[in-house]
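Researcher: I need the complex structure. Ligand is 2-succinylbenzoate. Inputs:
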Amino acid sequence: MKLKQVILRHLQMELKSPFTTSFGSFSTKDFILVEAIDEDGVSGWGESVAFHSPWYNEETVKTNWHMLEDFLLPLIFKAPIEHPDELNERFSFIRKNNMAKSAIEGAIWDLFAKKQNIPLSKALGGEKKEIGVGISIGIQKSIDDLLRIIEKYVTEGYRRIKVKIKPGWDIEVIREIRKHFSDILLMGDANSAYTLQDIERLKALDEFNLMMIEQPLASDDIVDHATLQAQLQTPICLDESIHSYEDARKAIQLGSCKIINIKIGRVGGLTEAKKIHDLCQKNNIPVWCGGMLEAGVGRAHNIAITTLENFTMPGDTAASSHYWERDIIIPEITVHNGMIVVPEGPGIGYEVDRRQVDLYTVFAKTYKA
Ligand code: OSB
Ligand code: MG
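Model: Output:
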């Protein structure tokens, strides 16, 4: 593949309802949509999952734009690409900035699969025809509000309910949920809201048969998580702490977790995500695909990677309508009985709705080879 031009677009979309984590609340989603166009005029699409502000990790929309414009795109234009797996090596002298790398890498994977006329899932080696999905519910004003929302999603068929937790919005909340929904697959995601000093509070959650607790401790930690896991029955799942294959290898070796949430952007792209998947499979660590409130392009990539065998647990890739009045892909992503049918068309398998993209674009720039 030889790229002719790349278009970066800054999009802004309103979430249907504000999303609240242990860090705070937001209702507007800013992100970069990447369109990579080759010599034949074929477009591949990628989506950066960095947020407007650096609360989840250190990256932002602006830092991603800077990395793409000043470092990554020049490397992309420098030489033809035989296979997207080469990009890991080509980008390797740039430290971190994984979401920026992933955004362009994802566009090139889509382009690659389209040139081969195969679905992205197949290009990645995935075989599932449909994938099971759960839902991630933010912190609510009251437990009653939360129970009503859970009821709605359980009725819709979502296969696992994840609720955000933090000190003070945890034991009582989970107890109430279990009272009303005794046998659903249930988990909590703390986004690093606890420290080892909270160990008794976290142990108190053991009685509720949670599927896992996601990222209880610091976002850069795998040592304290190992201490915690040794004292908890509930499996720990790492999200923020895993940025690479090497991080995953070390966390597994230390016993810091029993499950890993793979987010393509957080680990620097599909190639690295696949490597982590394979490593986890060898070590009997189940994985699932996390979400970053993506629009349709990012969610399509999530669906494709989830077709790999060791993605045995429902992911966070909910329906388009859960997030947006109108998504940027056609058809929109729909969930029936907690399942998404994997698209069979070439590449990401959804068409980008250019009219919607234009409506949401606040700034765009074209970069030529
Ligand atoms: O920690 O998994 C997370 C959303 C934004 C940032 C981090 C996280 C989340 C979610 C929601 O839990 C996932 C989604 O519905 O896309
Ligand atoms: Mg998480």
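Model: Summary of the prediction. The CA atoms of residues 243 and 267 lie 4 Å apart.
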